[in-house]
Write a structure and sequence with these properties.
Blueprint (H helix, E strand, L loop, with lengths): L8 H5 L1 H5 L6 H18 L13 H14 L12 H19 L6
Helix pairs in contact: 3-4
């Protein structure tokens, strides 16, 4: 949720945003919130309707608004969001290593 534009007013006001491309930007968050609202409007969904994949749009918007309030503190995406990726990578490496140890060619 970064606009990626070093010239945006939010980046100019907060120099820490310009240092890293993975920083959260209030402008990017507002754009993301607007996109979620448009998805609900286009699909005729009530904002509180729950989805088995993502939860309700209202809940996602509330989460983004909470992040937006914390941006001034140099907030980044929560570290736990990387846990599934790292777990998958480690399990894959262990599986390949285990198969190689057993003499089974993986490649």
């Amino acid at each position: 949720a970064s606009c990626g534009n070093a010239q945006c007013s939010d980046h100019r006001e907060n120099r820490s945003l310009a240092k890293s491309g993975d920083s959260l930007c209030p402008t990017g968050i507002r754009i993301f919130i607007s996109a979620l609202e448009k998805v609900a409007d286009i699909n005729g969904l009530p904002r509180t309707q729950w989805s088995w994949r993502h939860g309700s749009i209202a809940r996602r918007i509330a989460y983004l608004e909470k992040l937006q309030r914390r941006v001034a503190q140099g907030c980044r995406w929560p570290r736990w969001l990387w846990l599934p990726s790292w777990t998958t990578l480690i399990l894959l490496a262990l599986s390949v290593g285990g198969l190689s140890y057993l003499g089974i060619s993986v490649f």
